[in-house]
Each structure stands twice: as structure tokens, then as C-alpha cells.
Amino acid sequence: MNRRRFLTTLLLGGTALAAGGGALLTRGAGGEALAATFAVNKTAPEWQKILPKESYEVLRLASTEYPGTSPLLKEHRKGVFACMGCALPLFASQTKFESGTGWPSFYQPIAKTAVIENRDDSHGMVRVEVQCSRCGGHLGHVFDDGPKPTGLRYCMNGAALKFIPAA
Fold this sequence. Notes:
Blueprint: H1 3-12, E1 16-18, E2 24-26, H2 44-50, H3 53-61, E3 79-83, E4 89-92, E5 96-97, E6 105-106, E7 115-120, E8 127-132, E9 138-143, E10 153-156, E11 161-165
Antiparallel strand pairs: 1-2, 3-4, 3-11, 5-6, 6-10, 7-8, 8-9, 9-10
């Protein structure tokens, strides 16, 4: 059990978790986004059936893949990086850059409405978590040390994404 899952279970017990921008996101006792909150609704067993194990752990339980392990790290073709859970287009390949962190990084999402950003106090630090706006899947975190034009670094778990090449 990771720290976020433990704290969610202990402190929230399946109640609401406040998010940025006045939104209210609901997390289950295991840390997973609850079905009623998002347009794509699935139970934990349904997610487990359709997602690879690592993708399930990242998207639904807010885990993190080991740095340098994602094949998407070296993906440089033109196309779109979409949510592995619901296929919502999240990042255009033109916004991907080499951050040296070991995770696929982007300087902006395709649209402001594609992702939700929440305060994340886990692991003894304050960060901004990034979730898919359609299914609530945990994607990674955003930091303010990225390149121009935004100065942002959306540090995403490759297990949370799938690449769709341009036609």
C-alpha cells in the first residue's frame, strides 16, 4: 500500500477530497476515483479487467512507475498522447520535451479542460497532481520548472498514457 492510499483510507475513508478551482473530487477508500465523479464510470474490477496491472496501479491507485521504464519516454513521432483508461487526448507530441527526469514530460495539455489539477500533500511535500478530466485517472504531477512558452513541466507516468500516431 502506498502512502497516498494509506492516508486516503485512514483520513478520508471514502469521503470527498478537495481539488483546485473549487471542484470537489471524490476518492474511494482505496484512493481510486469514484465512478459518480467523472464521465467515464467503472468499478475497480472493471478497470482491472481493461487495464494492464501497472496502468491500473498508476491511474486508479495514484502509484508512480519507476523512472526511465516507459517506452513513451523515447516516443518522438507526431501524434497524440491519450489517457490509457478512457482514450481522452491529453498531450500533443509537439509539446513533449526531454526533461531528464525519467518520465515523459510536456509543457502543456491539449486543452485546459483535458486535465484536472489538485493539491497533493503526499510524501512530505506539496505538489500539484494531474488527473484525466474524463475518467479521473492519476497521470502524474505538474511543476513550474519547464521550458517556454509555459514554464510548466507536466511530468506524466507513461503507464497512464497511450500514444496515437498521426495519420
